[in-house]
Design brief:
This protein has a single domain, classed as 4-Layer Sandwich (Purple Acid Phosphatase, chain A, domain 2). It has helices spanning 14-28, 43-52, 70-78, 81-89, 134-147, 172-180, 195-203; strands at residues 3-7, 30-35, 60-62, 91-93, 98-102, 105-110, 151-154, 210-213, 220-224, 227-231, 244-247, 252-255. It has seven helices and twelve strands. The longest helix has 15 residues, at 14-28.
């Protein structure tokens, strides 16, 4: 059995992420971590963590959210820097889309999400938009149908399919200004999510047992069809989040 710690949005709280990995390894036998995006990856964060801690206590598999530096990530992927993060820092950034085997189980990854507090970054020159494009979604659908991962990891969730995520009322203006007016459909107010991930859901024949995401900074579990969707709470220094483990033998979540 392999236990994997599931971690929500961190927004630069790398020390807290590493501390949780160390504690989970010591007390619960956790062998790896999965972080659902918005770790806060940029050049300064990489350099600071490398200088202060060197490497994460366990292999940490991450995707990009909407608050990571997408231009920097694209350059790091092209020039091989991301491979050095994996070997030197135990930081495994999963490209869009990808499938990796963890504990003998295939895990599908697809990063990206729409901004709700600033204009979208389209990445015209670097091919690194912050959001999930239709091309990303269709490529992921093809890959996931072929590989049939038991777990899918995204930053947000598919919009309008019954997961019933709701944004904070204070962000309502930003959703209208930066998402709706920009031509994206985030779904109805009572069922928000990522339009690109809805494309993935609609085109993918495979239905994973479990699909985890973050972005909403809250803990929630909903079953849609045969798939359980789980929103993972954020990692912050001042708040104790719901601690979740994924057991690769039973393919089930375990609450800490």
């Amino acid at each position: 059995m392999v236990k994997v710690l599931l971690l929500g949005d961190a927004h630069g709280c790398w020390k807290e992420v590493d501390d949780r990995l160390r504690e989970a390894s010591r007390t619960s036998g956790v062998a790896a971590g999965i972080q659902v995006g918005d770790l806060g990856i940029n050049r300064r964060a990489i350099q600071t963590f490398a200088q202060r801690r060197g490497r994460f206590a366990l292999p940490l598999h991450v995707i990009d959210g909407n608050h990571d530096d997408h231009a920097y990530l694209a350059r790091a992927l092209r020039n091989g820097e991301q491979q050095r993060w994996a070997s030197d820092m135990n930081l495994h950034v999963q490209p869009r889309p990808s499938v990796v085997e963890i504990g003998g189980i295939k895990v599908g990854f697809l990063g990206g999400a729409l901004h709700i507090v600033r204009p979208q970054y389209h990445g015209m020159l670097s091919d690194a938009p912050n959001y999930v494009t239709k091309q990303h979604a269709l490529a992921a659908a093809s890959l996931f149908d072929a590989e049939r991962p038991g777990l899918i990891v995204t930053h947000s969730c598919p919009s309008g399919i019954g997961i019933r995520m709701q944004g904070h009322p204070d962000l309502k203006w930003g959703v209208h200004e930066h998402v709706v007016r920009a031509g994206f459909d985030p779904g109805p107010e009572h069922d928000r999510g990522e339009p690109g991930l809805r494309v993935l859901w609609e085109h993918m024949h495979h239905r994973p047992r479990l699909w985890i995401f973050g972005h909403f900074h809250t803990y929630r579990r909903v079953i849609v069809g045969s798939t359980e969707f789980v929103s993972v709470d954020a990692v912050t220094p001042r708040r104790t989040a719901q601690q979740l483990y994924w057991d690769t033998d039973s393919m089930c979540l375990v609450d800490a």
